[in-house]
Amino acid sequence: MSLSPDQIVTLTEILVILMGIGITYAVYYGSDQAELPGDATIPDPAQADDAHPDTEGRTL
User: pTM here?
Assistant: First the structure.
């Protein structure tokens, strides 16, 4: 069984569209929880710095 050129083009178009949807979902999933510039809280200068800062999560 072999595919005709039209079937190959159609199959490629469907796969590219599905990959685009998958990549878009992967990029935007959970992005509402990201800390954006300007959203970070300003620490109280009267408090001491953390001895062991939290190093897990998103970083630059």
Answer: 0.52
